[in-house]
Amino acid sequence: MQKGFPRHYDDLNDHLEKLDKAGLLWTVDHEINKDRHLHPFVRWGYVGDVGTVVSTNPKRAFLFTNVTDSKGRKYKGDCDVMVGGTAGSPRIYAASLGIDDAGDDFTALSQKVYEKWVHAFSNPIPAVEIPSEEAPVHEVIITGDELKGGEGKGLAALPVPNNTPGWDTAPYFSAGLWITKDLDTGVENISQNRCSLKASDRMTAMWLIQTNGGAHNNWVKYKERGEKMPVALIVGAPPALQVIGPQKTPENLNDLDVAGGLVGAPYRKVRCKTVPLWAPADAQIIIEGWIDPAKLEMEAPFGESYGNMSVEEYNHSITVTAITRRRQAIITSMISQMAPSESGVIKQLNYSAVMLNHLKDTLYIRQVKDVALHGPMIGVSRLTVIVLEKNTPRTEVWRALSGATTFMRSVGKITVAVDEDVNPNNVEEVLWAIAYRTDLMKSVKIEDYQANGHAPKLRDREWEAKIMIDATMHYPMPPVALPTKEIMEEARDLWLEAGLPPVAPRWKWYGYNLGDWTDEWTKCAERAVAGDWLLNGIRTASLVDADAVGGPTAGVPRKGVVQYNEKTGEVEYPPGFPLRDDFSTDV
């Protein structure tokens, strides 16, 4: 432990100041309801030209300094909310990584990002422990009975926004970073996954199995050994740590040390108060808790980056044991759901850099010049474009294509190799190359056994193939993951009242039902918009045995949806509860 150890990197407050000076931040002091209007307000910055990965992108981050909720609570002076401040645009993402970039050459930025990550992986810097009394995130410590009591207590005292109002059933931390620890190595993993509020001292977590993430792998070890699992959620991480969450980092490295490699200085860490984990001392908020690996709780619906709602499933239930925070904190939230979105930009640049590193420096395909994962509408993991030097040997072309589709198990459903004269970030140019530079009998391969990954669950088999299939609906699908039309129209009025430039949508801008939905989830969503999400937490409070439903991410069948009776306050369970959906996923 080193007392008086100084910070040599930006925290979130520094980052926002720099974004403001660069003209990349809108500070909104207009009163905004976090349950109904906050995310739809930001969405208007993504449905027009802003949000597209182009050189003229004017996208800014948002800082809301006058947040309210549907119950009339006011959070001004206690907690602000930031959205889009990590990767609202490629230029904002560059600022998060400490890269000086004017945003006028996306290919050049991709190369800078690639070099930054390669350096950090090769040169991690161990974090340094500082005492609790010097940690900004320990200015306020809330434990025990202070967490209990429902409204206005614990988690319910934080202005966590609804992400997809009209469909989501509770406020979600969409930019929170989970800290988990490998039982064998002691290595701490930091991953960005959604987190739903259930009660003032209870929340749920969804750790995606299909991407082979560290959080899930760590949970498996705790479950096998029958031990309770400590976890901590970082809210408002320093920017260079925030970008770690969606990234695929080496499993033998502590992610806090990788963040040190990104900034060229050691991060400051502090011991958590109620769990045996380290946390970043310069975060805004840390939420500590424990998981019983033998139990799961119903979680979701939630609007996902692949453009549909993720419907109700069984996931991890966390008993909160402490909330530590700054006296005046900033909650970070990520605009996700239907691309274009902030989550699309951060994954596009993160994944592209790591895949480029894999192809060039692991597979030694030296002719690879660039990798681009397309974002708008399809959410990054479905279309990969590889740029190769002119006259690359055919064997190296196919090694690159194969390597790109196997590096990450669920990335690369459609993968295209193009020449240097084709802009991989321009879909029209890529389609032009496909149309006129291929002999389809020789130039196309369709292979089976690709993981479904972060996408709507398949209902006809456990995996899918690489390359295209009929993209029309084959069965009812969950709603389009955007706020409802009514709420989006209300948010547009607020946007104009706040004096922001007019916006005109170019993509889908409101969500609608595609058939796979229930009336109960609509009621849950209406309660969340009204600020009554605590009632939804009561609805799901009966935990289920993990093995009984087949483990995390097992779906709740429509006939097995639990009902909350608002007249009696009773929870009504279907016969045979808990029921599991009859489709499965290759894990």
Structural class: alpha+beta
Low-pLDDT runs: 49-57, 468-474
Give the biggest beta sheet.
Answer: 11 strands, antiparallel
Q: Could you name the CATH topology of one domain? A: UbiD C-terminal domain-like
Question: What integer value in Å does the Rg equal?
Answer: 23 Å
Kindly state the percentage of residues in helix: 10-25%
Count of extended strands: 29
Q: Please report the first level of CATH classification, the CATH class of one domain.
A: Alpha Beta
Task: Give a quick rundown of the structure.
The chain has 587 residues and is an alpha+beta fold. Strands 7, 8, 9, 10, 11, 12, 13, 16, 17, 20 and 27 form an eleven-stranded antiparallel beta sheet that branches.
Protein architecture, described:
With 587 residues, the chain is an alpha+beta fold. The strands form 8 sheets. Strands 7, 8, 9, 10, 11, 12, 13, 16, 17, 20 and 27 form an 11-stranded antiparallel beta sheet that branches. A 4-stranded mixed beta sheet has the order 1-3-5-21. Strands 6-14-15 form a 3-stranded mixed beta sheet, with no helix packed on it. Helix content is 25%, strand content 21%. It has a domain at 343-466: UbiD C-terminal domain-like (3-Layer(aba) Sandwich).
